[in-house]
User: Fold this.
Amino acid sequence: MNSTAIHRCLHVLDLDASLAFYEQALGMTEIRRMGPDDGSWTNVFISTDTSGFQLELTWNRGRTEPYDNGGRDSHLAFTVPDFQAARALHEQMGCICHVNDAMGLYFIEDPDGCWLEILPEKAEFAPQAGVDVLAALGRRRSLRHYSGEPIPAPLLDRVIEAGLRSASGRGRRPWELVVVSDRDTLTALARCRDHGAAMLAEAAAAVVVLGDPTLADTWVEDCSIVMANMHLEAAASGVGSCWIQGRMRQAADGRSTQDFVAELLGIPEPYQIEAILSLGMPSEPAAVRPLDENLRAKVHEGRF
Assistant:
């Protein structure tokens, strides 16, 4: 049997104070609320744009005795994209209740005594199931600078699996993937373009996406879907990535990118390079990018 954690209930004495605290301290805002017509209790569900998990804040009319929502031994944990900025904010709010510098974390306390662990974003904390696709799209960036840390094997496997699960015309899957992690090869691969591929020299890995034109006349589209899916999964898993176009591009030595990569990686005929996905752990977290509402003008109903 499989299950998915969707929310945790916390009882609160002052609903407005708790809503204000969670919005200021953690950026959590109201998703929905429920309760009977007589107003004897109210449940408010809150979350962030980057997580499907919700807190259910329950308020009961007439309750004056403090709730026991647990402390350090029964706590909630949150990651933040800018750990130092978050700590400065929480110090200003006066809600930090415990600091463990040796482990690189601290706790804050909400108005009802619930302890909340604050951690920096790390690959091992990245959501691995039930990913919100729109949230992942909001985090997707072309990241060209990496921290130098190795990519955890499970995360690299997820990126590759996202490519393997890609749709293709008539299910022919005319693509092949070459995963490169050798440092010398990555450095050499950085010269596959006369510009725009230098980040490969500091990447932890790269995935070269090739297509077989003899299998499908949609090989370009099919390979692009593979690239897009891996690019998105990398963002969802906290891995930095950048799409490096290979098809119809020129290498630094004047040859085509196709000829350069084919010689470097031993690619046989008739495979053609579509693109390369550069991968590495981000040197800094990518903030969620809101939708540019001007793009709505590109949507046409019924007719252009």
In short: The helical segments are 15-26, 83-93, 133-139, 153-164, 183-189, 219-236, 257-265. The chain is about 25% helix and 25% strand.
